[in-house]
Sequence to fold (855 residues):
Amino acid sequence: MQIPAILLLGALALATASCVASPPAPAPVPVRDTTPRAPSPDSVGAFRDTPLVAAWGPLPPGTPHAERARSFDLQHQIVRVSFDWARHAVIGQTALHIAPLDSAITSVALDAVEMKIGSVRGAEGQKLKFDYDGQTLTIHLGRALRPKQHITLTVDYQTEKPKKGAYFIDRKHVLWTQGETEDTRYWVPTFDYPSDKTTWEFYIRVQKPERALSNGKLAGVRDLPCKKPRTKKDAGAITPCEAEYHWVQDKPASTYLMTAVTGNFSVVNELWEKTPVNYWTYPDSIAAAKRGFGQTPKMVELFSKLTGVDYPWAKYDQVVAPDYIFGGMENVSATTQADDDILHPAWAEPESNAESLVSHELGHQWYGDLVTTRGWGDVWLNEGFATFMAQMWDELGKSADDGAYSRLQSHEETIAADLAARRPIVFASWDANPLELFFSGHIYPKGAAILQMMRHQLGDKPFWSAMHRYTAEHAYGSVTSADLEKAFAAETHGDWSGFFKQWVYGAGFPTFRVRFDYDSSAKRVTISAQETQPRDALTGFFDADVDVEVLTEGGARKEVVHVRDGKGSATIALPSRPRSIRWNKGKWLLELSDFPRSTSMLAWQLEHDDDVTGRIEAARLLGQRKNDTTARVALDSAVRRDKYWAVRADAARSLAQLSSDTLARNILLDASGDRDPRVRRAVVAALRGYPGTFTYTRLRVMAFADVSWFVRSDALAAYVKLTGERSLPDIRSYLDRDSWLDLARAGALSALQEVSQATAWEILPRYLTGLFSRRARTAAIESLIAQRKGKEAQLAKLLEPLLADEDLFIRITAAQSLGTIGERSSVAALEARRKSEPESRVVNAIDAAISGLKK
Fold:
């Protein structure tokens, strides 16, 4: 049976008292007791020996880039395009309506990369002279064009096997394009920078019965005459018939949001009010598309209501794309999303739930598309806002716990990014491509965290009034962070300069040493805090209003600690002694804190806090109380009973950290039947620390019987970790099994990290080829890295050819792995690939590997 901690402590106290009252026994021979003992559960403890942040990471590498200057306004663009699949070529003609901005112009420079320019003509059809260097098409107008005048320029062009921008996916016969950051120029000559906004039209030819998707309204579909056979030999052959789709984007947007997707799609039609909401998917995946996209109309309703600005475009299409290079892209009114992220079987829920991705891309239709960053340095105004809108869906569309947990995740991601490479969120330095700004770990989570702090500081109603003002004032325009500050200052009649200085233009976050003092005679507790983060030109003291909550037997008491100039305190009257104390209740403030509290206080917090982030905090801290009975009882209860999956998962991990005894193992074995697969995965990881027959048996059952293949794969890896070579028959059975996303095969390949090197090398190299899925190949590479000792040179030679692989992510993994292996001979292969590599993410990985190898 379970014994509550308080009863256990009472029994120990009675036993001690009984011993004291007994007659004295003969003095024993003194023996030193070396048994490790946990501190008293009521002992508060001391501050950490080391600071939470000893030093900030360096700024990310990169060269500062100024906002791009413009001399003309692109007012409208018409693109007629077809795709030659035999050559992987884009064949196009585009007409651009252009007007000067402030002064006369005699030439127009368009972004157009590695194209064959056929001709350039003016409005009357006259040929115009042009220069082209493979990057910029400079058209000479033949006369000065003055402000308030305009001209139409028509360019005929082709591009064969474009390195970026347009992607031909042969296995599905699907073509999709990708514009952000500056890749539209690889398939359409245009002004390719976010600061200009224009309207446009696309005429897209496809082979029937394929369809073509683009931005805006579908103005019409025109059947084209079937092609006649070219020779008598071909006379009996079936020739393809074509259709031309005409799409009109009649409200201005930035050209990186242009899109074309073609393929054999079925379309699921829904509505939000009178606005079409459509899901483009493969004919055999309609049910999965509804599962992935199905909450979209409710999201549109919520976001329209919150912002006070109705969904601003003619329709909202979402299309799945094979081999997509991102999770999703917010092309205006026509989002593209990775098919693997959307189309999942029912058993893959909740891990493969697509709502975070879908809500993020939908949020962009307001923030990113309607209101767009003027330059890449302020791109948090796109990505941070979209992440924030996804968090609002988590909170209001799903549950308050989900919203709180997503805020916590944003904080953890931001803190990790700043510890690795601290930078302000407004930042315009990069090396190869502005896309580097997106992957530093700052703009998505910190942008959302900043907005959440503003929301909490103001309250919902004033916050959303200010958001409405910002959105409505800058609709169909471009913005900087200063525009957001001005809108909030005007709407709230407040001064936001200090907030923006520390959170937007500054860097880092506050760290606190927090202490409490309870006066039992006065029945009051004083909570005080001192900021301890390293301070310099980028990071100073943070003015912070921190929510605190004290739980007592008589209920909760709340207060705010106002931290100014690095210090703050608050005193709270209490009906009885504090049972637990929360600092930063709700995790609204982005911060780290060192706050010593007793085990009993953390146990009370884990059981009684109504905030999921507080229970997660308590579960994690209790895992550090080695061999503490009170901590174990509290964690046991949380693993079994907490209503939120993430608390149960963290409690399981902490339980394994806390104790390696049989009782802890039995609690985890019981928890391996949890209803949520995310918890079962946490339990599987925890069970790695408990070798023995009971654990082996349970892990093997999970590996072959769990409803979730995510759990199965993790269970196999844990089973192999504990049993080694005797699990080889199970590994081989997994290698022969096909599964969704190749989870089974990838799980088996990952498990080979735990067998002998000879066995691993016998199996793994064959899975590096393009015959296998990306997931399987990546797992094979990771296992070979783990099994590389003494075979570094051989492994480097195996991986160097993968630098030229068709798969972007395999190239990234290969470059990173070569850096990890450390064979200096790989520098030549890395440098050779860098000269021809088009994708900046691969270039960055190559540069990092070369730098490490040369050191």
User: Anything to note?
Assistant: The chain is about 35% helix and 20% strand.
